[in-house]
């Protein structure tokens, strides 16, 4: 077995594809259709995009819960092995925090049992009590003993989400993958949970992939953001850049419809697109306002919008955008493939 | 005259059905839940009022009370005047006429509550049929088709079953149903919660244009203050069954005076604003149990700027004068003192003359 590679990202997706047999025999759904993504130690990455774009599928694949149809997941530079033993070891380092805390806690288990469960699966029983107490207090439930014997219905929504987080922390992972960690919570509680994620990063160096359709959440806590559309990451880079000066027309539309956004909202019509029928060329072209307005034609890229796939973006931390128009207008010497030149078409 | 006038409304859920018997009314028993505790507001024709507050503060209870749709265990007092008529004393026959045609409601989580085995066209046609029994089938079909197109769905989707529609489409169906009898008022309880940003934007633009085109009044409920601030003219913030702040939407969202209103507004990030980047203040503590409210100002256990007498006085809504409630200076910057009389009211001793100390004396006298 190979040794972990120093300085490697703690978790990576390498050209990951995940396909499902679609319902009603509609062919295959390409839920994740070519994704490279790296999460460095201590980094908080937000994965954003509209419902059905493949965020949860990608997150589950990174956790080893779903096997990629092609491509691979790397843990500290080493390809994930899908044996139960290897996965168990992997889970100590990479933990999942689920959306909806009421759904992920058993109503008949006390807080103590809910948190201890992870340890017991791994057979670490000796200092169980201390470790449960420690996880609870790191999740901000203090003094922990006061919560040991409570049942989920005796907790507030924020406290329940903290218990779920404590359950993930008890194994002392280095990364957590959180799927919509605050979607079902009140505004006032939301701040509390996000502050907790930031504190865990600052104090323990915990890295996180936060899956959400809430761009405000990315602004609140993430270092980097990856915007996903119909199975692909279409724009990625530091939060300050991507959320204040987005270049992909899809990212621009997502930001424009936020209640606080300046300017006229670009409301994309129609339902989120269908992964069994991914359009040829740029997958966004059928809804793209830049193409519809004629701006893409004026820049001479409309043919490529309809005919050429802008390609899969590379991993790493660089600013990248999968859009012919953005690559043309933002580069002073005319059309080029920009930072993603190395990407496969 | 206002279209809707609510005066001192209270709603108490009785611990058991038997406790709701007439002889027990008026006396709060053990286990009773005072979900709405004296709410007053008015809504003019064509006006849009947003109602925000955290889970359990009584928003849905209030919405249901407006149409008298609460369960039998709920005991109401106060006045709800709709177009001049008191809804609380109205006969059932008259009430039926007002529902749908006067005021209609889009229920919270309603998109999950469509009848799974009935085509959506039939469900949209139902209120029309109930309301105008003489209207024929063909006319109802025509009207349903029109309503569907109005909310951006092709008329032929009338034949679809709910499971064939996405969440956003089902929410449109609920809105079509609410519009079926040309109401003057629509109450929308969390119409976009759980929908993603793009679908939310579609639904909100739809509601806004319908309200503007037809001069409908709107009472919109959400826990997302930023959505309400964007859609509504005025905003009311509820805490523990009361309105604690009310005023023009931009003022309440941008420069709330009640410490709870401030905490709620601060919970929504403004993208691009460095103040909300990696700096989060959640509101510590939990919403109070309505059956066991703290004494004095019910917000005092969680209030960062409470005064010594806040557990003694229970402030009511008061016009805000030119004084600022102290805060950390980061989240609500730059608004400065505003003159009294912009129509903002807050229920906090800090907006009262002399911090409400005179009330302490009165109450202890
Ligand atoms: N087990 C499955 N079988 C078939 N199709 C699936 C399966 N899981 C997901 N899909 C499809 O894959 C696509 C991506 O789904 P996914 O749950 O990853 O989206 P998401 O971005 O997490 O959406 P949301 O924001 O609504 O949670 C969807 O079209 C979905 O219907
Ligand atoms: N039928 C009922 N019987 C008894 N108590 C009830 C009933 N319905 C609601 N309550 C209680 O009344 C209070 C107010 O509930 P309500 O549903 O009005 O809150 P809300 O502000 O709409 O919350 P949310 O944002 O979660 O929808 C809560 O404490 C709730 O538990
Ligand atoms: S490549 Fe063309 S169609 Fe695709 S997002 Fe860019 S401008 Fe729009
Ligand atoms: S009355 Fe006192 S406790 Fe209540 S909100 Fe105002 S300052 Fe805070
Ligand atoms: Mg998901
Ligand atoms: Mg409600």
Automatic annotation (TrEMBL), chain B:
One of its GO terms (biological process) is peptide transport. CDD domains: ABC_NikE_OppD_transporters. It comes from the Bacteria. Its main location: membrane. Pfam families: ABC_tran, oligo_HPY. Transmembrane segments: none annotated. Keywords: ATP-binding, Cell membrane, Membrane, Nucleotide-binding, Transport. It comes from Jiangella ureilytica. Coiled coil: none annotated. Residues 4-265 form the ABC transporter domain. The lineage of its organism: Bacteria, Bacillati, Actinomycetota, Actinomycetes, Jiangellales. SUPFAM superfamilies: P-loop containing nucleoside triphosphate hydrolases. This is ABC transporter ATP-binding protein. PANTHER family: DIPEPTIDE TRANSPORT ATP-BINDING PROTEIN DPPD, OLIGOPEPTIDE TRANSPORT ATP-BINDING PROTEIN APPD. It is a peripheral membrane protein. Residues 324-333 have a biased composition (Basic and acidic residues). The keyword Membrane applies. GO terms for cellular component: plasma membrane. It is found in: Cell membrane. Belongs to the ABC transporter superfamily. One of its GO terms (molecular function) is ATP binding. InterPro entries: AAA+_ATPase, ABC_Ni/Peptide_Import, ABC_transporter-like_ATP-bd, ABC_transporter-like_CS, Oligopep_ABC_C, P-loop_NTPase. Residues 321-346 are annotated as: Disordered.
């Amino acid at each position: 077995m190979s040794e972990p590679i120093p300085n490697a990202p703690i978790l990576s997706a390498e050209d990951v594809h995940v396909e499902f047999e679609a319902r009603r025999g509609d062919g295959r759904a390409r839920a994740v259709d070519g994704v490279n993504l790296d999460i460095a130690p201590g980094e908080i990455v937000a994965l954003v995009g509209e419902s059905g774009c493949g965020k949860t599928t990608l997150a589950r694949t990174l956790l080893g819960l779903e096997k990629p149809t092609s491509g691979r997941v790397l843990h500290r530079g080493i390809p994930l092995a899908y044996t139960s033993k290897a996965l168990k070891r992997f889970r100590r380092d990479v933990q999942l925090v689920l959306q909806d805390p009421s759904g992920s806690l058993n109503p008949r288990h006390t807080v103590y049992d809910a948190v201890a469960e992870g340890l017991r699966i791994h057979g670490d029983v000796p200092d169980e009590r201390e470790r449960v107490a420690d996880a609870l207090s790191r999740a901000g439930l203090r003094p922990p003993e006061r919560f040991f014997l409570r049942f989920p219905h005796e907790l507030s929504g924020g406290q329940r989400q903290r218990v779920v987080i404590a359950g993930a922390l008890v194994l002392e992972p280095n990364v957590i993958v959180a799927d919509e960690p605050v979607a079902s919570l009140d505004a006032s509680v939301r701040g509390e949970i996000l502050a907790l994620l930031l504190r865990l990063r600052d104090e323990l160096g915990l890295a996180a992939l936060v899956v959400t359709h809430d761009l405000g959440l990315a602004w609140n806590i993430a270092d980097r953001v990856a915007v996903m559309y119909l199975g692909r990451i279409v724009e990625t880079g530091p939060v300050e850049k991507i959320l204040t000066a987005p270049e992909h027309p899809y990212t621009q539309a997502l930001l424009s419809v936020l209640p606080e956004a300046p300017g006229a909202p670009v409301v994309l019509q129609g339902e989120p697109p269908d992964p069994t029928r991914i359009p040829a060329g740029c997958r966004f072209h059928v809804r793209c306002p830049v193409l519809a307005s004629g701006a893409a034609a004026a820049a001479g890229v409309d043919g490529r919008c309809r005919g050429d796939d802008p390609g899969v973006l590379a991993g790493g931390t660089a600013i990248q955008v999968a859009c012919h128009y953005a690559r043309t207008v933002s580069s002073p010497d005319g059309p080029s493939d920009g930072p993603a030149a190395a990407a496969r078409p | 005259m206002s279209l809707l006038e609510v005066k001192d409304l209270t709603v108490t859920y009785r611990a058991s059905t038997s406790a709701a018997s007439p002889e027990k009314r008026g006396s709060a028993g053990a286990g009773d839940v005072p979900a709405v505790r004296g709410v007053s507001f008015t809504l003019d024709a064509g006006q849009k009022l947003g109602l925000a507050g955290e889970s359990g503060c009584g928003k849905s209870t209030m919405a249901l009370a407006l149409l008298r749709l609460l369960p039998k265990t709920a005991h109401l007092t106060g006045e709800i005047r709709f177009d001049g008529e008191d809804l609380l004393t109205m006969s059932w026959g008259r009430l039926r006429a007002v529902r749908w045609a006067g005021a209609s409601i889009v229920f919270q989580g309603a998109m999950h509550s469509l009848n799974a085995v009935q085509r959506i066209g039939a469900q949209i046609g139902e209120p029309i049929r109930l309301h105008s029994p003489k209207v024929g089938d063909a006319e109802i079909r025509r009207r349903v088709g029109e309503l569907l197109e109005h909310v951006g769905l092709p008329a032929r989707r009338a034949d679809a079953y709910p499971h064939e529609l996405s969440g956003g489409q089902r929410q449109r169906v609920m809105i079509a149903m609410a519009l079926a009898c040309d109401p003057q008022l629509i109450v929308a309880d969390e119409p976009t919660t759980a929908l993603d940003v793009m679908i939310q934007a579609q639904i909100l633009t739809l509601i806004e244009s319908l309200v503007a085109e037809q001069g409908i009044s709107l009472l919109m409920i959400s826990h997302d203050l930023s959505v309400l601030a964007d859609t509504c003219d005025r905003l009311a913030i509820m805490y523990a069954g009361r309105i604690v702040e009310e005023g023009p939407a931009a003022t309440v969202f941008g420069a709330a005076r009640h410490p709870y209103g401030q905490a709620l507004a601060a919970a929504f990030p403004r993208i691009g604003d460095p103040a909300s980047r990696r700096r989060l203040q959640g509101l510590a503590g939990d919403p109070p149990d309505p059956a066991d409210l703290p004494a004095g100002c019910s917000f005092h256990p969680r209030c960062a700027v409470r005064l010594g007498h806040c557990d003694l006085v229970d402030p009511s809504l008061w016009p805000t004068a030119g004084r600022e409630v102290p805060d950390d200076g980061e989240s609500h910057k730059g608004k400065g003192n505003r003159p009294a009389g912009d129509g903002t009211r807050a229920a906090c001793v800090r907006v009262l003359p002399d911090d409400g100390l005179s009330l302490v004396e009165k109450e202890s006298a």
